[in-house]
Amino acid sequence: MRVSQSNGGLHVLAISGTYVVMLGFDLPASDCEGLLGFSIHRADHTENTSKYLEGMKCFEATDPGFPSGAEYPSDQHPFQSFQWADYSAKPGYSYTYTITALKGTPAALTKFRSVSLPVSTEKPDATQHDVYFNRGNAASQEYVRRFGDRSPEEVPNNAAFTWLSRGLYEAMVAFIRSCQPGVHALRIAAYEFHYEGILQLIKEVWDEGNGVDIQIVYDARKDSPKKMNEQRISELGIGDICKGRTEGKSYISHNKFMVKLENDVPVSVWTGGTNFSDGGIFGHSNVAHVVQDSDVAALYLSYWEELHADHTVATTKKAVEVLTTVPAAPPPTGVSVLFSPRKTLDALNYYGQLALSAKEGLFMTFAFGLNGVFKNVYENAVAPLRFALLEKATRPLADDDPQKAIEEQAIQSLRNKPENVFAIGDFIRTNKFDGWVKEQLSGLNSNVKYIHNKFMLVDPLSDDPIVIVGSANFSDASTTDNDENMLIVRGNTRVADIYLGEFMRLFSHFSFRESLKWRKPDEPPKPLRTDDWWSDSFGDTPRSARRKYFAPQ
Q1: How many other C-beta atoms lie within 10 A of the C-beta of residue 385?
Q2: Distances (CA, A) of 366 to 185, 224, 371
Q3: Cα–Cα 20 to 30 A to 358, which of 75, 114, 209, 393?
Q4: Residues 158, 351: Cα–Cα separation, whole Å
Q5: Could you tell me if residue 545 is inside a domain?
Q6: What is the pTM of this model?
């Protein structure tokens, strides 16, 4: 949902997803003299409550002396940014947000202009597309506030896991439980397939052949995740419905999808980047995307049957390219599907072509470095705003590998371009920064700790956005070697709004944490400013581009 409103030069755009409401502000530079920031008041019409949103910074002159980790209401300590977001919103709620530009002094703030907007958040399962993002940032101030320095396993009643899931696990359970014996069947393709809660649920629904017809193909090409997959399958006694994908031992069967059939007709598919593992569901950032479409589900079922047959990679490539051809650019309105492995890099180059076509904004996630196709995109694209969220600056390389320094320099060169805004996963490792408390990782992931998502947003705030999401990592291997699947969704503003809000949630979280690398822990705190803090949000600057993008007039 998108709502905009203006009052006397103050313009506000609200973009609501499921758990995120983004707010972009704009105010003429001529009206910004003496501007001390923006307050945000939220009236919750569903729970009949109201509050000012809070931030982590305060004015030095009116610092109340709260302990580390405290938050400050924005009517007393306003947000000094032209773009903010409410990450505590709930799905399917009705809110009114009132944004007020404040001037005066820290001790006597005065209201300059105000705008109020009615906003309704999306329900994750309300339409043809159901979208579920997990929390994806266990190392956060909110985790510490709720659970202290305890690992998720140490928190009673699974409370930490419920918070980390953020509805994704519950949706996965509901998808499986919705299957009825004699009516439905389930076909699953998995890479990591060893989270006990899900495998136990599958066993219950299957019920030794007396329940739902379930068949599973899992990765058995390499010891990891083969050994853990097969150990858990054996422990739970579901080997009769599981088959390992063994062909092409140097590659991986990287899919994470489920096809639901009703009376032998495929009706929906659960896909995305979430592995059937504790780290996938509760640890690093992931999304699950359900498409309620029989044509799309039928394609996935045909693909699953090909995987289950465990043909050679060469045979699979032939079948895959018959099932899904690379569409024209731009893709048709609606949903297109691309499977891997493929004979050539045509699909990867196609994604690069779509990224280059962005006119206003490009947003991408990268779990394993920036492929050359996308280095070219971030070097030569015309979109004035190009975001990238990375697990690391490079693909996995040893510290003493000379190629690592070369790749890091290439990424830095791209980061130096004003149109490119990058962030790399990190967490706060000390209590010495501005009252922020020390964080720790959940311990659920050893390889990819932060950014496991694989999605691309092309002009997401336009009336004709493109969202690409699935299991593939926008790499050569994910195109020509691995078993992968990708959705291309064009023209669905609801889907784009959800993805953009979640992208910016993760980006803001990790961007700040990465920035601490360039600060010394013993530097004095940086309070809210009373000077012209707003000036670099105008002119030919990256902040100006963000202001204009998130609050277009």
Answers
A1: 20
A2: 34, 22, 9
A3: 393
A4: 39
A5: no
A6: 0.97
